[in-house]
Amino acid sequence: MRLRLPQLLALILTGLLVLAGCATIPRNSMVQQIEAESNQEESQPFRFDAQGPTEGSDARRIVEGFVEAGRSVLEDYALSREFMTPELGADWRGDSRTLIYEAMNVLTGADSNRYTIQLEISGEIDAMGVYTQEPEHSTRAVDVEVTKVEDQWRISKAPDGIMLESSSFSKIFSPQTIYFYDSSFNYLVPDVRWFTSGAGTTTSMVEALLAGPAPYLQNAVVSAFSPASTLVRSAVPVQDGVATVDLSAESIRESSDRAKQLMQQQLEQTLTALSSVSTVRMLQEETEVTLGAPAANFVTAQINPSTPDTLIAISNESLVYVKGRSIIPVGGVPDISAYHPRNPAMSAVGNRYAFLNGKSTQLMTIDESGRVGLAATGGAFIRPSIDVAGWTWTADNAAEHPLLVVPEDVAGQGEARPISVSWLEDTKVTSLSISRDGARALIVAEKNNESTVYIAGIVRDADGVPRGLSDEPMKVYPSVPVSTAVWDSDRSIIVAKLSTTEQVAAEQLTFEHGSERLGLLLGMTGITSGVGDLRPVYAETSEELYTRVGNSWHALDDYAKDVAYPG
């Protein structure tokens, strides 16, 4: 039968639609979802010319080919499964783990059908996109077994997950930010995850958000979604810039208008960072969720709120402000010269201050009325940090539990109290800084002459009182020696090892694993950075105060020491 042209075109169009529909059917992969019903021009996964197994390949070559095939994420890692027995291929999950390696070698095991893939790794990503950075030259061994299928070697036993060379990783995965709330719901705290690039990114992000925060933020941030929240189906389609999130009935059942509004805000701030998404529709079992009028207790949460641009410092044994190129005495504060003050801190909200005495054995605070009070005594305090809730943090390295917090209102909230942190046992805390959102602590701790940079969530009770830090902090591995660290934004920090005599190289590190070296400065004794646009980085020596201009340091005409941004 001869088909007319319109009939032929209709059949071709129908075939293409069927093929497109098949491409949107997700298998068991969470990270590799493909969007349904999307007419947006989404980025596609990077395509490699990886090859399937060649007939007659020896067992070692099959193992090596399996590693190389991890570069192809298409069709739920179909290429990787070609190197497996049908039984293993049916159960194996490629998206459960990604090992990022710098070097790889395949070693023969004790038995002829066993091999060990020896890797030098730089990091690992789990099924929810959480990236765990590893120290330089870390190694990992992956054991596999092979057998013959129709006289061809195939892998019969292997752990879930893929292995990617670092150069390939950066082409296949990209960082995305999902957001959770601080305990007051006034701030949105970033949680950077890594997902394969492509049309499934929105699905991966929402599923990760519903699953909860990364380990280092556990119990420190909250979600507007209950732990029972799930998608009706594993897809968040994007059409004409609108991302549709269809939630199960359990996700929203008995939720107040405020709770729904918090959910909507959390989704919007998470997804609209994608270029393909401008609006988010929230459905419950295919029915539009009614948000209602703005709740009386609903506030728009802040993201990366700016630090005030006025710094605190010491000059002539008095508190002074540093703003731009000017140094101004702090008014309304009594004479504190008898304490020989050092290392001051200032609240980001209000006019409260803290400082140490000259021997670092006393922590002093100054309240809104200008009254000076002794907050704590100890043996070796470090520079304090004041969080957005008014709590002053420091560490006393002469105490059994070094971390110490002091309430804004000692009379009403009690005196200074220690915070026990198991992973800080037998360490010397050299630096402590609280994030602008008050949800995270940035800590440098030294043990056996080696320093480690930690970022940990702050666990608070229902009244906002700090009770501890998360059990599994995130570790950061700079390329420079470190003794101090400061926040540069809600997802970047600056680290350095201070010295009165050596050239000091500071480094900016982002949660997306970018880094930049700052210019060398001889005898750098302090460094500070503020969150927000046009917040210059300041560094100091024993004789001069500098601001960063480009990648060099420019000395100011006047000098103040122990300079710090609020917080």
From TrEMBL:
Protein name, as recorded: LpqB family beta-propeller domain-containing protein
SMART domains documented for this protein: Germane
Region span, Disordered: 36-56
One Pfam family of this chain: Germane
Residue span, GerMN domain: 202-293
Source species of the chain: Glutamicibacter bergerei
InterPro entries, A to Z: GerMN, LpqB_C, LpqB_N
Source lineage: Bacteria, Bacillati, Actinomycetota, Actinomycetes, Micrococcales
